[in-house]
Q: What sequence folds into this?
């Protein structure tokens, strides 16, 4: 449990009184409420007479101070990032990732969309970084951005789930609607015949075809690459086309 | 912690892309900057208009001065709301801030049309010149809108259309307020309809063009 962020906090007293407040978001109000609650429970302590078990954490001033300290640290990193400090910026963004994930999960985002929400939030932080005021809480600023991006993620997920289903076998077995298999086989055969015909061309003609057609170069680029004149290339290109046409027509 | 490669790549890209940014001034300061521009236009208008007659005309009937207070407050509150909405961490509820002033403005203007007695130093609206009000409101509101959109664009709004609508309301109400300097006419239904039409055009133009500009900023 990461109490430094104070996002999730569990107050448990003995075996009988267990209060789970994990649904609360981190906020000053939440921390204050928990603190008050903790104080009241402490006041009733003799009546309950239940010892605190090992590992039990009470939300107290220490937690609140840690939360504030984390927030101050992030605010300082963000202020440095606004001034162009890359190291502080990268540290900040890495530090924010677990927090963004918690917010996204809190909003009910599915685990396979969490990474998308994280990335969208980081991008938004990047684009909106000039709007952050270091006198305000960075964590609160980030939480709202993450919540907004999580809602976008939920909408996207909702749209996807209404339009798409997970069916890997159907995907694999789906036939190509672009043409029938006979046509595809013919296409492959035709390509092989063309390759063979190009191979049989004379050296200069093959060179012209390779540069001008297969590599898509301009006449000037091909001339520079081969060291031949553009006129020579053009002549060989037209002769190659004529030869290929004759050979392929003859074959068909 | 397991992090996807694409997130790592994104972090690296964002780090590489990082440039120093000028921090946005607080919203209150930006509001004052925009209002200062409107104030400068008002000052210029005092040079070419009869301010004494305007004050006399506006104070002659409650609906006249209530309408001016309403439009002025609408401009101030709407621009304050627009600058708040241009920040990513502010609530959409800011959009309702100018609504009470807007209701006062609409209500007082409507009451003016129902008033039976004419106001001194105000003439009946000439029926053949309604386009003057339209041109004046559009001529002032649209440049003010341009300035406001440029200022709002520096922010980052999750609600670009709402921000543009509220910004448009600010500009239209500012234009309607400034119109009083050169508008020696008594309240009339035709006049009110022309003003409402001009305000609607300004808000629509802001929503279409301003909204698109602000949406473009988000992507």
A:
């Amino acid at each position: 449990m990461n109490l430094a962020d104070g996002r999730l906090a569990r107050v448990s007293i003995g075996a009988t009184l267990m209060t789970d407040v994990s649904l609360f978001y981190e906020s000053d109000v939440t921390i204050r409420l928990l603190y008050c609650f903790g104080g009241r429970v402490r006041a009733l302590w003799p009546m309950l007479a239940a010892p605190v078990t090992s590992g039990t954490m009470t939300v107290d001033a220490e937690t609140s101070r840690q939360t504030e300290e984390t927030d101050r640290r992030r605010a300082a990193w963000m202020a440095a990032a606004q001034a162009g400090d890359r190291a502080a910026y990268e540290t900040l963004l890495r530090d924010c990732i677990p927090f963004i994930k918690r917010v996204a999960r809190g909003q009910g985002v599915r685990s396979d969309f969490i990474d998308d929400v994280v990335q969208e939030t980081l991008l938004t932080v990047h684009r909106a970084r000039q709007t952050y005021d270091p006198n305000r809480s960075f964590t609160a600023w980030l939480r709202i951005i993450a919540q907004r991006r999580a809602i976008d993620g939920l909408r996207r997920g909702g749209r996807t789930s209404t339009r798409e289903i997970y069916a890997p076998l159907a995907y694999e077995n789906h036939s190509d609607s672009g043409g029938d298999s006979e046509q595809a086989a013919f296409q492959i055969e035709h390509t092989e015949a063309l390759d063979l015909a190009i191979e049989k061309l004379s050296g200069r003609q093959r060179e012209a075809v390779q540069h001008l057609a297969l590599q898509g170069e301009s006449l000037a680029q091909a001339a520079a690459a081969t060291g031949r004149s553009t006129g020579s290339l053009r002549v060989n290109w037209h002769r190659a086309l004529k030869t290929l046409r004759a050979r392929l027509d003859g074959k068909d | 912690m397991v992090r996807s490669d694409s997130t790592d790549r994104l972090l690296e890209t964002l780090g590489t892309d990082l440039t120093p940014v000028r921090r946005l001034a607080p919203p209150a300061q930006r509001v004052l900057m925009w209002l200062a521009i409107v104030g400068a236009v008002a000052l210029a208008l005092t040079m070419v208009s009869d301010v004494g007659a305007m004050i006399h005309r506006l104070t002659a009937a409650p609906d006249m001065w209530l309408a001016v207070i309403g439009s002025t407050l609408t401009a101030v509150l709407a621009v304050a709301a627009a600058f708040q909405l241009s920040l990513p961490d502010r609530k959409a509820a800011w959009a309702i801030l100018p609504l009470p002033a807007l209701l006062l403005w609409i209500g007082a203007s409507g009451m003016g049309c129902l008033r039976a007695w004419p106001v001194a130093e105000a003439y009946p609206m000439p029926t053949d010149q309604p386009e003057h009000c339209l041109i004046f409101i559009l001529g002032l509101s649209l440049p003010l809108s341009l300035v406001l959109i440029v200022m709002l664009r520096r922010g980052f709004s999750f609600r670009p259309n709402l921000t543009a609508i509220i910004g448009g309301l600010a500009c239209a109400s500012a234009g309607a307020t400034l119109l009083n300097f050169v508008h020696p006419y008594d309240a009339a239904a035709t006049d009110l309809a022309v003003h409402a039409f001009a305000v609607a055009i300004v808000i629509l133009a802001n929503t279409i063009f301003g909204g698109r500009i602000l949406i473009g900023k988000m992507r």
Q: What stands out?
A: Chain A touches chain B through 32 residues (CB under 8 Å).
